[in-house]
Amino acid sequence: MLIEENKPLAPFTTFGIGGPARWFIETASEEEIAEAAAWAGEHRVALFVLGGGSNLLVSDAGFNGLVLRVALRGITAADAPGTLSEQETANRRTYQVAAGEDWDGFVERTVQDNCAGVECLAGIPGTVGGTPVQNVGAYGQEVASAIERVRAFDLLEHKAREFDVSECGFAYRHSRFNSEDRGRYIVTRVDYRLTFGGAPTLRYADLLRAFAVGEQPSLAEVAAQVRRVRQTKGMLIVEGDPDCRSAGSFFKNPVVDEEQLRQIAAASDNAPPRFPAGPGKENLGRVKVPAAWLIEQAGFAKGYRLGSAAISTRDTLALVNLGENDGRGGASSEEILALASQITAAVKKRFGIQLEMEPVMMGF
Ligand SMILES: Cc1cc2nc3c(=O)[nH]c(=O)nc-3n(C[C@H](O)[C@H](O)[C@H](O)COP(=O)(O)OP(=O)(O)OC[C@H]3O[C@@H](n4cnc5c(N)ncnc54)[C@H](O)[C@@H]3O)c2cc1C
């Protein structure tokens, strides 16, 4: 077991921000995870699970514990005849994907295999193991509707456990892994159940616009369009593009009730845009309001800067580290948080809505 000391964490994050990990280990199997977890227990140090670092803000002081990077690899696929309903004839294919696999690489594989279910989630950075944690979603799809099972190492019981999708507690940017069981499980494998020969999901205007009425684009064409749209918004990691030195959306879209919606409308000159809050009893009578709209209405524009932290020039929802371009060596986590609190305070003051941050904070 190779445990490194004082390992800089910034290179392991898409923000490119953060101090060192006191201890750091890469784990390529469940056995190595078990060993590393036992080591952290024996030495009574905190343990943090790192995937692709694309949804993280690491503190400038770093992390005073063991950072365990998940590096398990491998994808296996198995076909089964459709069983969901009598009409369903399409075959189902289950992919068992090790948690350390690159998510976008996996999406590309499924699209090339002509399997539908995650094509709209193309271009999202990070690992497969990170996807169930916040129920990754974009352009009309969420992983919750394609996941069959999640396998994880239980740090409390020191053994592997499997969760059926119904046990994962999925909702908008939510699962048991980032709420009541936060920090308890290390995801080691995710089973995705996709539809061989299925049609792509085409719900979002940004996608529909790219195809002629009546056209039936392939899964690969839809995934390629998703990547194009993401790139125009700085939401695709492209080497040298300063707008993608971020953690994606920094704020969640608030889900509001009718009273809050009235409150927002009363404080604004324009009617607030809104879209369905999603399924679930808790969302009855509620709608999602775009956080980007609230931020703009509160007086912030794309490209707004505070020191070396800024709002992306292409997407109001992304905070970016200006990096080397600012002549000061890039933003600190403190600067990112200062900008975030300026924004949340202004939105709260104008609309009475408390924006929630989406990235996970490490070492604060
Ligand atoms: C440019 C850009 C665009 C993005 N677009 C989207 C988007 O459209 N939709 C969306 O939902 N997200 C988006 N994100 C956020 C991010 O890509 C996803 O949340 C991603 O799934 C995070 O995975 P990761 O492996 O990088 O996790 P990390 O950032 O390494 O970790 C995030 C959290 O997950 C936990 N975690 C990671 N792996 C495991 C594991 N194996 N077991 C247990 N816990 C684990 C960590 O402990 C941490 O709490 C975007 C990010 C960027 C930078």
Overall description:
With 364 residues, the chain is an alpha+beta fold. The protein is 21% helix and 25% strand. It contains 7 helices and 20 strands. Strands 6, 7, 8, 11, 12 and 13 form a 6-stranded antiparallel beta sheet that branches. A hairpin with a 2-residue loop joins β17 and β18. The structure holds flavin-adenine dinucleotide. Flavin-adenine dinucleotide (FAD) binds next to β3, β9 and β13. The site of flavin-adenine dinucleotide has 35 residues, from β3, β9 and β13.
Averaged pLDDT: 93
| Estimated structural class | alpha+beta
Instruction: Tell me the radius of gyration.
Output: 21 Å
Q: Quaternary state, please?
A: single chain
Give helix % range.
10-25%
Bound molecules: flavin-adenine dinucleotide
Number of strands: 20
Largest sheet: 6 strands, antiparallel
Summarize the structure.
With 364 residues, the chain is an alpha+beta fold.
